Amino acid sequence: MKNPLVSIIVPYYNGKKYLDQLFDTTLNQTYKNIEVLILNDFSTDDSINIINEKIKEDSRLRLIDMPQKGGCGSKGVEEGLKHVYGEYFFIMTQDDFLDKDYIEKCVDQINKTGVKIVLTKSYFHFGQTNKQIGKTLKKEISGKKAFELSLNWKISNVGLRSVELTKIEPFITTCYDMDEYLFKKYLLLVDKVAFADTAFYYRVDNPNSLSKELHYFNFETIKSNILLVKTLIENKFSVNSIDKHCKELIKIYQVWFNVYKINKPIFSKEHQEYIENIFKFSKEEIEAIIKKYNLIRCKYKLLFSKLEDVQSINYKTPLVSIIVPHYNGKKYLEQLFDTTLNQTYKNIELLLVDDFSTDNESLEIIKKQQEKDSRVKLIPMPKKGGYGNYGVEEGLKHVKGEYFTVLTQDDFLDKDYVEKCVEQINKTGAEIVLSRAHYFKGEGKKRRQIGKNFKHPISGKKAFALGLDWEISNHGLRSVKLLEKDPFVCKYYNQDEYQFRKWLLLVDKVAFADTAFYYTVNNPDALTKSVYPFNFDILETQLFHIDLLQEYKFPKHVIEKRINKLIKQHNKIWVKAFYEVI
């Protein structure tokens, strides 16, 4: 077998952005005896016309329409395998890419060793950097050894496979990540596996990737991991190996259970029932495995006994409103959508309050994102505001959430930001949860933390005092009910700092979440980079802070310290700023 036809299967949906790369990485392989099968899962963009034009140039390219909506890559793989002409096949998604000698190096190993599976190096591709997945071996190993190493990605499971394997074990999609399970199982069907010194690149910087969103079928990964443990048992792996992967299975169950617990409201009733049936089935299956084979050591039995089931869900999953005042923010929109819409907590709404932007392009980008994601709302200001707090005031008139947070258009959050804050709401019942905050000066530069975080709740009064000098951050989630006690009315430039602190005095306790907000300070176009007349409002709000200290009967020394600091600021900073303005 010197020159076998190799079939490259590509599940595809609306991938116009990556088509040039896809054509280049496949059709320009140094090994020419290939066919490229693009499985179109009812794409809605104009990319299919581009593919059809390319087919006219290169007959090795084939476009196959899915007979019905698949919704995930494994369905495309299953359909693609019905149409292959090759002796070997390879799977990639529409945004992945390969070394140019990828197929050639794999075929070389097939010819040298006669194997039915050749694996290669794999890398996570982050845009500018790559991170290797597992390691690559130089010598052949048994299929059984390769299976065991692949379970925890000690070796990559990407490479060429003989089509004959799909006749022994047909590729039938019974769960979302069936490709990962079956590609591992195929390793058990061969005597040996070879390795080629070439690389596959798995793109993780595509914000529109299916893996970036949470779908009801993602929970099927629990079922595929149950199949893996059963496969270990059926193939008589060591008790230690089975025991180890049972432990991993229990952890996987609990991780996905926690994901569902905090995101239940985003799913329809039908999908909630589907997911909850997965948990019910999986818990019974795991328990049966443990009882039948007596596999798990005592501490893992305890771990299993603590597994929650769907009847135990009484977790609050409030809608959280993220308010972002916006003006000509095209440069930061991609980052903004990523940091908000890709939060691990999905029950959010993103309110972009536009202050008469003059770059129509940014508004068009926002409107397109609205079409993709119904959680995005574009709210035009009724009249020109001039700075962010007018946008906050207007945004608060439109929130539907029970809690809210505010960002400027160039700030960003940890991906678990909202999730961690909601966890603290559930644990403590607090109406305000604050987080860590950092100044962000650009990639590769140190992120300086603002103040400190507490592990346990403190009184609202103490939080107010600490917040005045930024001994704690003032960023976090706040209950919309606070607006009923004291409405947000924009009278001053830094109304948000004043009002957010004042609300601290209206609550019994304030909780803290171990997650971070990043305040971008390297944006040359930011309003804070220049001095305007309204900046001097800060002096007046500082006086209001002193009034609050007196009203809530803070100790005399605290009040005096605040007065002295204000006098110093006035003399050192504001007098100088005044002369800059005039």
Structure at a glance:
The protein is built from 20 helices and 20 strands.
What topology does this entry show?
Layout: E1 6-12, H1 19-27, E2 34-40, H2 47-57, E3 61-65, H3 73-81, E4 88-91, E5 97-98, H4 102-113, E6 117-125, E7 130-132, E8 141-142, H5 143-151, E9 159-162, H6 165-168, H7 178-186, E10 192-203, H8 221-234, H9 239-263, H10 269-293, H11 298-305, E11 320-326, H12 330-341, E12 348-354, H13 360-372, E13 376-380, H14 388-396, E14 403-406, E15 412-413, H15 417-428, E16 432-440, E17 448-449, E18 458-459, H16 460-468, E19 476-479, H17 482-485, H18 495-504, E20 509-520, H19 537-551, H20 556-581
Parallel strand pairs: 1-2, 1-4, 2-3, 6-10, 11-12, 11-14, 12-13, 16-20
Antiparallel strand pairs: 4-9, 5-10, 6-7, 6-9, 8-10, 14-19, 15-20, 16-17, 16-19, 18-20
Description:
With 582 residues, the chain is an alpha/beta fold. The protein has four domains: 6-211, Alpha-Beta Complex (Spore Coat Polysaccharide Biosynthesis Protein SpsA, Chain A); 214-312, no CATH class; 320-529, Alpha-Beta Complex (Spore Coat Polysaccharide Biosynthesis Protein SpsA, Chain A); 541-581. It is 42% helix and 19% strand. The chain has 20 helices and 20 strands. Strands 1, 2, 3, 4, 5, 6, 7, 8, 9 and 10 form a ten-stranded mixed β-sheet that branches. Strands 11, 12, 13, 14, 15, 16, 17, 18, 19 and 20 form a ten-stranded mixed β-sheet that branches. Helix 12 links the parallel strand 11 (320-326) and strand 12 (348-354). The chain is elongated, with a radius of gyration of 28 Å. It starts with 5 loop residues before the first strand and ends with a helix. Residues 571-582 have low confidence and may be disordered.
